[in-house]
Design a protein that fits this description.
By secondary structure, this protein is α/β, with parallel strands linked by helices. The protein is 22% helix and 24% strand.
Amino acid sequence: SIIWEIDTLIDIGIGKNGTPELYERFNKAKLILIDPLIECNSYIQENLLHRDQCFFNTALGSSPGVLPLNIFSSLNFSTFLKVSDINSTEKPIEKREVAIDLLDNVIANKKNLGNIGIKIDTEGYELDVIKGSPKTLRNTKFVLAETRHNHESLHNVYKLHEFALEMYKNKF
């Protein structure tokens, strides 16, 4: 299998542990790191200061706005969606209003991004991220996304075929 070389890796939903395997694989790529949880910045401060990187403390979606984010004790499971009983191990510990923007808007002023690779892990919001990224996707060589095949795990989550169709519309 061929993995394209990229100039910029965009990690959407870095979580509290980042994605070190990708950072290592693309060790010369610029990093654009995006997460609505400010707590994720500690991973960057402890592990990525030696890299050409930029952190955006925002959520991404298909339209700008503000939504309540359900925060769980395991930050990586935080989501805009209501977690169903199938997935639920706990109740959210906090609901936090977070800003949402389009990926196209967030990186609009970034220059010389070259070929882009994107990783998305947004706990059921991946389709919305893609819908807000048509310009960025034109220069994107690959998208790695944690998609939902079990649409019953989160209330009102997209179906896998909807994600596949949106990727197809963007020439993937």
